[in-house]
Amino acid sequence: MIPPTRHWCVQIDVTNVCTMPCVAEDDGKHRGCSNCTRLNAHVAADRPKYFMAPEVFRQACESLADFREKSLPDLHHRPKFVGMMGGDPQCHPKFPELCAIMRGAMDQRQAAVWFGPIQPRYRELIERTWGPLDQKDQRHWNMPHAYIHSNAHTAADACVHHPLLVAISDMIDDELDMWARIDACPYQEKWSSAVTDRGAFFCEVAAAFDQVIGKGLGEPSTGLALWTGDGPDKKPWWQKPLSAFAAQIRRWCPMCGGAMPLPARRDCECLDDVSESNLAVLRRIGSPRIASGRFRLFRREEFDPTAGGDPASWNPVRYARGRYGKTRDRNDYLTTEGTENTEGGSL
Ligand code: SF4
After folding, report:
1. 68-95 residue pLDDT tens
2. What is the pLDDT of residue 21?
3. 204: which residues sit within 8 A by CB, 6+ positions away?
4. Is 262 in the pocket of ligand 1 (CB under 6 A)?
5. Which atom of ligand 1 is nearest to the CA of 204?
6. What is the reported pTM?
7. CB 162 within 8 A of CB 257
């Protein structure tokens, strides 16, 4: 794991509402991605939608105003960004206000946004805030403008998602082995830290667990305050050492599958892989996806601890696409074909 100051990006999650056109092949209706990193399919239907208040967004942006300039270098030499993320930020009813806050609060070269298909009504606003629309995967240090990542999750994108709801604690009994794998979690090292309305987090996936499961269970937030200290001692959260985030790591990492090589799933399958203990928790919080049966129980006997090669250095990008380090590249996906949902839903 790395402290947030090493991250190439910090995400500010502004909403859990999303319009990703992930289409189930059976009836063509939108149901959302498989294995969404934000666990959005598990928010109980009777819970209010999450929209970050503009004032909280302003405070989050201000805490990150000099992230590009003052944070430590990314270990993979990537430029540094602060992202507006969801769900889909375009679904926030105050999206134009959030854009104005982001433009005013930071160097435009570090501002970024992640969303689904671009809504035509926001094209001009998006270009004014983040620069030219056609720039996917063109990020580099000398970009004169911000970074836009638009993933429409079409068939051509061939996007796969790691099963984050397969709990490592359900797969591995040896605590030393489990924590060693968590300590080497490739997602935390390669992805982002995050801010939600519940505070600051060392990992965007842990932030999602806190937002959906912590909130759903009525637990107090594990998020850190955006600032500590006064005057010259005042420091933003992302300058804290990793040890400051220990309570988050202890609470959320054992429930997560990010530190294990697991078969990924196509986004468009609209189906989540979950392990036994998480299934019980998701039922407690009233998960609509579980209630609708659009999940697959991942059993302990399916877990191959040797897959992916060295647990400390397996590559999730290669692995998630079915490329097992210990055998030949497979480049295939785990599909619903040949699997069974033993927990009552239809596939
Ligand atoms: S195990 Fe999950 S929550 Fe923990 S650092 Fe990895 S991706 Fe984040």
Report:
1. 999 999 988 888 999 999 989 999 999 9
2. 46
3. 11, 13, 37, 85, 191, 192, 193, 194
4. no
5. 8
6. 0.88
7. yes
Written as six digits, the tokens of 326 are: 């210990």
40 lines ligand 1 (CB under 6 A): no
Q: Determine whether 264 is exposed, middle or buried from the number of CB atoms within 10 Å of its CB (0-12, 13-18, 19+).
A: buried
Q: What pLDDT, in 10s, does the model give residues 267-322?
A: 778 889 999 999 999 999 999 889 988 899 999 999 988 887 777 777 776 666 54
The residue assigned the tokens 């911000």 is 146
Rounded CA-CA distance 168/182 in Å is 9
Cα-to-centroid distance, 171 and ligand 1 (Å): 15
**What is the rounded CA–CA span in Å between residue 85 and residue 98?**
11
Domains of the chain: 4-157+190-243 (3.20.20), 160-188+251-320 (no CATH)
Task: From 347, 337, 291, 280, select the one nearest 46 (Cα to Cα).
Answer: 291
Is any ligand 1 atom within 6 A of the Cβ of residue 255?
A: no
Q: Strands 192-196, 227-228: parallel, antiparallel or unpaired by DSSP?
A: unpaired
Phi, psi of 71 (to 5 degrees): -80, 165
Alpha carbon of 257 to ligand 1 centroid (Å): 7
Q: Kindly tell me the burial class for residue 175, based on how many C-beta atoms sit within 10 Å of its own C-beta (0-12, 13-18, 19 or more).
A: exposed
pLDDT digits (tens, 9 = 90+) for 247-256: 999 999 999 9
What 3-state class would DSSP assign to 181? helix
